[in-house]
Amino acid sequence: MIEVCDLTKRHGSTPAVDALSFRAEPGRVTGFLGPNGAGKSTTLRMLLALDRPDRGHALIDGRSYVRMRDPLRTVGALLDASSVHGGRTARAHLRTLARTHRIPDGRVDEVIGLTGLDGVAGRRAGTFSLGMRQRLGIAAALLGDPAVLLLDEPVNGLDPEGIVWIRTLMRELAAEGRTVLVSSHLMSEAVLTVDQVVVIGHGRLLAEGDVAEIVRTYAGPAGSLEEAYLRLTSGGAR
Ligand SMILES: Nc1ncnc2c1ncn2[C@@H]1O[C@H](COP(=O)(O)OP(=O)(O)OP(=O)(O)O)[C@@H](O)[C@H]1O
Protein backbone atom coordinates (compact mmCIF):
# COMPACT_ATOMS: atom_id res chain seq x y z
CA MET A 1 0.00 0.00 0.00
CA ILE A 2 1.21 3.48 -0.87
CA GLU A 3 -0.22 6.45 1.02
CA VAL A 4 0.61 9.98 0.06
CA CYS A 5 -0.87 12.63 2.34
CA ASP A 6 -0.71 16.41 1.92
CA LEU A 7 2.68 15.97 0.24
CA THR A 8 4.28 19.28 -0.68
CA LYS A 9 7.65 20.16 -2.17
CA ARG A 10 8.83 23.49 -3.52
CA HIS A 11 11.85 24.08 -5.70
CA GLY A 12 12.55 27.74 -5.03
CA SER A 13 9.23 29.52 -5.44
CA THR A 14 7.74 26.83 -7.70
CA PRO A 15 5.64 24.13 -6.04
CA ALA A 16 6.67 20.87 -7.72
CA VAL A 17 4.18 18.92 -5.58
CA ASP A 18 1.36 20.78 -3.88
CA ALA A 19 -0.74 19.28 -1.04
CA LEU A 20 -0.98 15.98 -2.92
CA SER A 21 -2.87 13.05 -1.38
CA PHE A 22 -3.66 9.69 -2.96
CA ARG A 23 -3.46 5.93 -2.35
CA ALA A 24 -2.27 2.99 -4.40
CA GLU A 25 -3.68 -0.34 -3.25
CA PRO A 26 -2.23 -3.87 -3.16
CA GLY A 27 -3.33 -6.17 -5.97
CA ARG A 28 -3.79 -3.29 -8.38
CA VAL A 29 -1.75 -1.48 -11.00
CA THR A 30 -2.16 2.26 -10.39
CA GLY A 31 -1.29 4.60 -13.23
CA PHE A 32 0.35 7.84 -12.11
CA LEU A 33 -0.48 10.24 -14.92
CA GLY A 34 0.24 13.88 -15.64
CA PRO A 35 1.87 16.13 -18.20
CA ASN A 36 5.61 16.94 -18.27
CA GLY A 37 6.57 18.77 -15.12
CA ALA A 38 3.38 17.76 -13.24
CA GLY A 39 5.41 16.45 -10.29
CA LYS A 40 5.33 12.68 -10.83
CA SER A 41 9.08 12.07 -10.50
CA THR A 42 9.32 14.41 -7.51
CA THR A 43 6.55 12.43 -5.79
CA LEU A 44 8.28 9.11 -6.54
CA ARG A 45 11.57 10.59 -5.29
CA MET A 46 9.89 11.59 -2.02
CA LEU A 47 8.46 8.08 -1.62
CA LEU A 48 12.06 6.86 -1.88
CA ALA A 49 13.48 9.58 0.40
CA LEU A 50 15.58 10.97 -2.45
CA ASP A 51 13.83 14.31 -1.94
CA ARG A 52 12.59 15.66 1.38
CA PRO A 53 9.02 16.90 1.57
CA ASP A 54 8.40 20.41 2.88
CA ARG A 55 5.12 19.12 4.29
CA GLY A 56 3.06 15.94 4.44
CA HIS A 57 4.17 12.35 4.19
CA ALA A 58 4.72 9.55 1.72
CA LEU A 59 4.35 6.08 3.23
CA ILE A 60 4.96 2.60 1.90
CA ASP A 61 3.22 -0.12 3.87
CA GLY A 62 2.76 2.40 6.68
CA ARG A 63 6.39 3.50 6.90
CA SER A 64 8.50 6.23 5.44
CA TYR A 65 11.44 4.96 3.38
CA VAL A 66 14.01 6.21 5.91
CA ARG A 67 12.45 4.07 8.66
CA MET A 68 12.58 0.84 6.67
CA ARG A 69 15.00 -1.80 7.95
CA ASP A 70 15.29 -3.54 4.62
CA PRO A 71 14.13 -1.11 1.93
CA LEU A 72 14.98 -3.26 -1.10
CA ARG A 73 12.75 -6.03 0.26
CA THR A 74 9.91 -3.59 0.85
CA VAL A 75 9.92 -1.45 -2.28
CA GLY A 76 11.50 -1.85 -5.70
CA ALA A 77 11.90 1.16 -7.95
CA LEU A 78 12.81 1.97 -11.51
CA LEU A 79 13.51 5.69 -11.71
CA ASP A 80 16.36 6.39 -14.06
CA ALA A 81 17.45 3.33 -16.00
CA SER A 82 20.69 5.02 -17.06
CA SER A 83 21.98 5.23 -13.48
CA VAL A 84 23.99 2.03 -13.76
CA HIS A 85 27.79 1.74 -13.73
CA GLY A 86 28.49 1.22 -17.44
CA GLY A 87 31.69 -0.73 -16.85
CA ARG A 88 29.98 -3.49 -14.85
CA THR A 89 28.22 -6.44 -16.36
CA ALA A 90 24.50 -6.70 -15.70
CA ARG A 91 25.10 -9.73 -13.46
CA ALA A 92 27.87 -7.96 -11.49
CA HIS A 93 25.65 -4.92 -11.03
CA LEU A 94 22.82 -7.07 -9.66
CA ARG A 95 25.19 -9.14 -7.47
CA THR A 96 26.64 -6.00 -5.90
CA LEU A 97 23.16 -4.75 -5.10
CA ALA A 98 22.12 -8.17 -3.78
CA ARG A 99 25.16 -8.56 -1.52
CA THR A 100 24.75 -5.14 0.07
CA HIS A 101 21.19 -6.16 0.97
CA ARG A 102 21.92 -9.76 2.07
CA ILE A 103 20.03 -11.19 -0.90
CA PRO A 104 21.35 -14.58 -2.12
CA ASP A 105 23.09 -14.80 -5.53
CA GLY A 106 20.42 -17.28 -6.62
CA ARG A 107 17.88 -14.45 -6.64
CA VAL A 108 20.12 -12.58 -9.11
CA ASP A 109 19.78 -15.44 -11.58
CA GLU A 110 16.03 -15.52 -10.99
CA VAL A 111 15.52 -11.83 -11.80
CA ILE A 112 17.82 -12.15 -14.82
CA GLY A 113 15.50 -14.89 -16.07
CA LEU A 114 12.34 -12.94 -15.18
CA THR A 115 13.49 -9.93 -17.17
CA GLY A 116 14.74 -11.85 -20.21
CA LEU A 117 18.37 -10.79 -19.71
CA ASP A 118 19.84 -14.35 -19.69
CA GLY A 119 21.63 -13.90 -23.01
CA VAL A 120 23.27 -10.59 -22.10
CA ALA A 121 23.88 -10.81 -18.34
CA GLY A 122 27.64 -11.15 -18.93
CA ARG A 123 27.80 -7.97 -21.02
CA ARG A 124 28.75 -4.55 -19.69
CA ALA A 125 25.74 -2.41 -18.96
CA GLY A 126 27.41 0.45 -20.85
CA THR A 127 26.87 -1.46 -24.11
CA PHE A 128 23.14 -1.95 -23.45
CA SER A 129 20.35 -0.41 -25.51
CA LEU A 130 17.83 1.73 -23.65
CA GLY A 131 15.37 -1.19 -23.68
CA MET A 132 17.97 -3.52 -22.15
CA ARG A 133 18.80 -0.91 -19.50
CA GLN A 134 15.09 -0.67 -18.68
CA ARG A 135 14.99 -4.46 -18.19
CA LEU A 136 18.09 -4.27 -15.98
CA GLY A 137 16.46 -1.51 -13.91
CA ILE A 138 13.37 -3.68 -13.51
CA ALA A 139 15.55 -6.67 -12.54
CA ALA A 140 17.11 -4.51 -9.80
CA ALA A 141 13.66 -3.40 -8.64
CA LEU A 142 12.53 -7.04 -8.35
CA LEU A 143 15.68 -8.24 -6.58
CA GLY A 144 14.31 -8.01 -3.02
CA ASP A 145 10.95 -9.54 -4.03
CA PRO A 146 9.21 -6.39 -2.74
CA ALA A 147 5.47 -6.02 -2.15
CA VAL A 148 5.51 -2.51 -3.64
CA LEU A 149 6.89 -1.41 -7.01
CA LEU A 150 7.40 2.14 -8.25
CA LEU A 151 8.06 2.33 -11.96
CA ASP A 152 8.75 5.67 -13.66
CA GLU A 153 7.93 5.39 -17.39
CA PRO A 154 8.99 1.73 -17.66
CA VAL A 155 7.98 1.37 -21.32
CA ASN A 156 10.51 4.04 -22.35
CA GLY A 157 12.80 2.60 -24.97
CA LEU A 158 11.07 -0.77 -25.14
CA ASP A 159 10.14 -2.26 -28.52
CA PRO A 160 6.59 -3.65 -29.05
CA GLU A 161 7.59 -7.04 -27.67
CA GLY A 162 9.13 -5.35 -24.63
CA ILE A 163 6.00 -3.27 -24.09
CA VAL A 164 3.81 -6.39 -24.04
CA TRP A 165 6.32 -8.01 -21.69
CA ILE A 166 6.29 -5.14 -19.16
CA ARG A 167 2.50 -4.91 -19.36
CA THR A 168 2.17 -8.64 -18.63
CA LEU A 169 4.76 -8.44 -15.86
CA MET A 170 2.95 -5.55 -14.13
CA ARG A 171 -0.36 -7.45 -14.34
CA GLU A 172 1.29 -10.56 -12.86
CA LEU A 173 2.93 -8.58 -10.05
CA ALA A 174 -0.44 -7.06 -9.11
CA ALA A 175 -2.15 -10.46 -9.37
CA GLU A 176 0.37 -11.71 -6.78
CA GLY A 177 -1.02 -9.04 -4.43
CA ARG A 178 1.68 -6.41 -4.92
CA THR A 179 1.11 -2.69 -5.14
CA VAL A 180 2.31 -1.36 -8.51
CA LEU A 181 2.51 2.39 -9.13
CA VAL A 182 3.52 3.23 -12.69
CA SER A 183 3.94 6.66 -14.21
CA SER A 184 3.15 7.11 -17.87
CA HIS A 185 2.46 9.64 -20.60
CA LEU A 186 0.96 7.07 -22.93
CA MET A 187 -2.79 6.82 -22.34
CA SER A 188 -3.19 4.13 -25.02
CA GLU A 189 -0.70 2.02 -23.08
CA ALA A 190 -2.00 2.93 -19.63
CA VAL A 191 -5.55 1.88 -20.48
CA LEU A 192 -4.32 -1.62 -21.32
CA THR A 193 -2.33 -1.97 -18.12
CA VAL A 194 -3.74 -0.10 -15.16
CA ASP A 195 -6.77 -0.70 -12.90
CA GLN A 196 -6.93 2.76 -11.41
CA VAL A 197 -5.38 6.13 -12.09
CA VAL A 198 -4.11 9.11 -10.17
CA VAL A 199 -4.00 12.17 -12.44
CA ILE A 200 -1.97 15.19 -11.36
CA GLY A 201 -1.23 18.61 -12.86
CA HIS A 202 1.01 21.37 -11.46
CA GLY A 203 1.69 19.12 -8.48
CA ARG A 204 -1.97 18.83 -7.51
CA LEU A 205 -4.41 15.96 -7.61
CA LEU A 206 -6.85 16.32 -10.53
CA ALA A 207 -8.62 12.97 -10.27
CA GLU A 208 -8.27 9.56 -8.67
CA GLY A 209 -10.28 6.41 -9.27
CA ASP A 210 -10.92 3.31 -11.35
CA VAL A 211 -10.19 3.74 -15.05
CA ALA A 212 -13.82 3.08 -16.06
CA GLU A 213 -15.12 5.57 -13.50
CA ILE A 214 -12.66 8.30 -14.57
CA VAL A 215 -13.51 7.78 -18.24
CA ARG A 216 -17.26 7.88 -17.54
CA THR A 217 -16.99 11.00 -15.38
CA TYR A 218 -14.68 13.05 -17.56
CA ALA A 219 -15.22 11.74 -21.10
CA GLY A 220 -18.74 10.29 -21.08
CA PRO A 221 -19.95 6.71 -21.67
CA ALA A 222 -18.34 6.39 -25.13
CA GLY A 223 -15.18 8.27 -24.19
CA SER A 224 -11.58 7.13 -23.84
CA LEU A 225 -8.99 7.51 -21.10
CA GLU A 226 -7.08 9.84 -23.41
CA GLU A 227 -10.08 12.17 -23.73
CA ALA A 228 -10.64 12.11 -19.97
CA TYR A 229 -6.94 12.81 -19.37
CA LEU A 230 -6.85 15.69 -21.86
CA ARG A 231 -9.97 17.20 -20.38
CA LEU A 232 -8.52 16.93 -16.88
CA THR A 233 -5.08 18.28 -17.71
CA SER A 234 -5.86 20.94 -20.34
CA GLY A 235 -7.33 23.41 -17.84
CA GLY A 236 -4.30 23.26 -15.54
CA ALA A 237 -4.56 22.53 -11.86
CA ARG A 238 -4.44 26.01 -10.39
N1 LIG B 1 15.90 19.58 -8.71
C1 LIG B 1 15.03 20.46 -9.16
N2 LIG B 1 15.28 21.80 -9.08
C2 LIG B 1 14.38 22.70 -9.52
N3 LIG B 1 13.19 22.39 -10.06
C3 LIG B 1 12.89 21.08 -10.17
C4 LIG B 1 13.79 20.06 -9.74
N4 LIG B 1 13.20 18.84 -9.98
C5 LIG B 1 12.00 19.11 -10.54
N5 LIG B 1 11.82 20.44 -10.65
C6 LIG B 1 10.62 21.10 -11.18
O1 LIG B 1 9.51 20.57 -10.47
C7 LIG B 1 8.40 20.36 -11.33
C8 LIG B 1 7.97 18.91 -11.32
O2 LIG B 1 8.97 18.13 -11.97
P1 LIG B 1 8.91 16.53 -12.08
O3 LIG B 1 10.17 16.07 -12.74
O4 LIG B 1 8.58 15.97 -10.75
O5 LIG B 1 7.67 16.33 -13.05
P2 LIG B 1 7.23 15.02 -13.88
O6 LIG B 1 5.74 14.96 -13.79
O7 LIG B 1 7.99 13.84 -13.42
O8 LIG B 1 7.67 15.42 -15.36
P3 LIG B 1 8.15 14.48 -16.58
O9 LIG B 1 6.93 13.74 -17.02
O10 LIG B 1 8.62 15.47 -17.58
O11 LIG B 1 9.25 13.60 -16.07
C9 LIG B 1 8.83 20.87 -12.70
O12 LIG B 1 8.41 22.21 -12.82
C10 LIG B 1 10.33 20.78 -12.64
O13 LIG B 1 10.93 21.72 -13.50
UniProtKB/TrEMBL annotation:
SMART domains: AAA. InterPro entries: AAA+_ATPase (IPR003593), ABC_transporter-like_ATP-bd (IPR003439), ABC_transporter-like_CS (IPR017871), P-loop_NTPase (IPR027417). Residues 2-227 form the ABC transporter domain. Keywords: ATP-binding, Nucleotide-binding, Transport. GO terms for molecular function: ATP binding. The keyword Cell membrane does not apply. The keyword Transferase does not apply. Transmembrane segments: none annotated. It holds the Pfam family ABC_tran. Signal peptide: none annotated. Belongs to the ABC transporter superfamily. This is ATP-binding cassette domain-containing protein.
